[in-house]
Structures are given as structure tokens and as C-alpha cells.
TrEMBL record:
Organism field: Nitrosotalea devaniterrae
Span of domain Transcription regulator AsnC/Lrp ligand binding: 90-148
Any one Gene Ontology cellular component term annotated for this protein: cytosol
Statement: the UniProt record of this protein carries the keyword Hydrolase: no
Keywords: DNA-binding, Transcription, Transcription regulation
InterPro entries in UniProt: AsnC-type_HTH_dom (IPR000485), Dimeric_a/b-barrel (IPR011008), Tscrpt_reg_AsnC-like (IPR019888), Tscrpt_reg_AsnC/Lrp_C (IPR019887), WH-like_DNA-bd_sf (IPR036388), WH_DNA-bd_sf (IPR036390)
Entry-linked Pfam families: AsnC_trans_reg (PF01037), HTH_24 (PF13412)
Gene3D superfamilies reported in the protein's UniProt record: 3.30.70.920, Winged helix-like DNA-binding domain superfamily/Winged helix DNA-binding domain
Keyword Thylakoid appears in the UniProt entry: no
Protein name: Transcriptional regulator, AsnC family
One GO biological process term: response to amino acid
GO function terms (MF aspect): sequence-specific DNA binding
Taxonomic lineage: Archaea, Nitrososphaerota, Nitrososphaeria, Nitrosotaleales, Nitrosotaleaceae
Length: 180
């Protein structure tokens, strides 16, 4: 089954971080191996408080133990985003979902609202194999298929900047109140 982000987000109550939580996340996004003692010193907080906050964020699913792999460094340098539409009926929709689940080179897949029903990220070492073994397998179970090969990365995933932005947006009013 494809991850159903929209319905999951409406069923689970969101974790509401405070400013300290966001600062902890920001530090951990820079260095996931940072020790609680270091975090506590940097954030001027008690080490037990940091440990409890991190535990709470792990329990709520905000923090996940996950490594980030640079696939191109081990020979899988071709990445493609594939857009797919399915107006072929429930049987083919089931085949598409099964293909996505079983194909190991599909590393991400999303059901979307917009011009494409699905976006699928695929990695491979060889363009011909990507075309023959993945894209051509998708053609009969989709009504429209588009693909874009990634030629260069313009911006890497940047959790630190987003966390800083959220902290400023959500907690700037506290700082301005303290100044008056």
C-alpha cells in the first residue's frame, strides 16, 4: 500500500513543538550523532530535559532513526522522477501499487493531487536498464507516463533552514514582547 500521508495526518494528532524542541531538532539536523550533554550545553538546558524531549519526539514519530545514503557514490547515479496517471481501472491500479511495492529501485512513491496521480522516484546505474526494466514495465499499467532524469541537484534537503524559519515564524512574537 502506498503511504497515505493525507489521511494519516488527519487521524494522528500532530506533535506541537515548542522553541526548545525546534532548537534540538536544528542541532540534530546538523549532526545526528550529537550527544545530549553537548546539546544541553549549547542550548543552556538540563541534559535530562534534552533526553526527555528527544524521547518524546521519537515516540511521536517526529524524529526517526534513518541514515541518508548517497546512492551515486555506490554506482547508482541515475535518478528519475516518474509521473503516472491511471484511468485504466481498479485492476491496473492494483498492479501499479504492487509494482511500486515490489520494485526495489523505486525508493519513493506518492499519490498526489494535481497533474499526475503518482510521483515515483527510481534509481538505477544504467539508463537503458532504467528504461527497459522499470519504465517499460510501468507503461501497460498506467494511462500516461512521464519521466525526468535528474541531471544535477539544485538544493539538498535542508532541514536546518526550515527549522530556523519555523522557529522565527512561530516564536518571533515572544522576542518582540520581551523587548517592549
Amino acid at each position: 500500500m502506498i503511504l497515505d500521508i493525507m489521511s494519516r495526518a488527519t487521524r494522528e494528532p500532530p506533535f506541537v513543538p515548542d522553541e526548545l524542541d525546534l532548537m534540538i531538532l536544528e542541532y540534530m539536523a546538523k549532526d545526528a550523532s550529537v550527544q545530549f550533554k553537548q546539546l544541553a550545553e549549547s542550548l543552556n538546558a538540563d541534559q535530562r530535559t534534552i533526553a526527555k524531549r528527544v524521547g518524546k519526539m521519537k515516540q511521536s514519530g517526529v524524529l526517526q532513526n534513518k541514515i541518508q545514503i548517497n546512492w551515486s557514490r555506490i554506482g547508482l547515479g541515475i535518478a528519475a522522477y516518474v509521473g503516472a496517471e491511471t484511468s485504466l481501472g481498479e485492476k491496473d491500479l492494483g498492479k501499479l501499487h504492487e509494482f511500486i511495492r515490489k520494485e526495489p529501485r523505486v525508493i519513493e512513491a506518492y499519490s498526489t493531487i494535481g497533474s499526475q496521480e503518482y510521483f515515483i522516484k527510481v534509481i538505477e546505474s544504467d539508463l537503458q536498464r532504467l528504461r527497459e526494466e522499470v519504465l517499460m514495465q510501468l507503461e501497460p499499467i498506467t494511462s500516461k507516463l512521464t519521466s525526468s532524469i535528474i541531471s544535477s541537484q539544485v538544493k539538498q534537503e535542508d532541514d536546518v533552514s526550515l527549522l530556523r524559519f519555523l522557529r522565527q515564524r512561530w516564536f518571533a512574537h515572544k522576542k518582540s514582547k520581551n523587548r517592549t
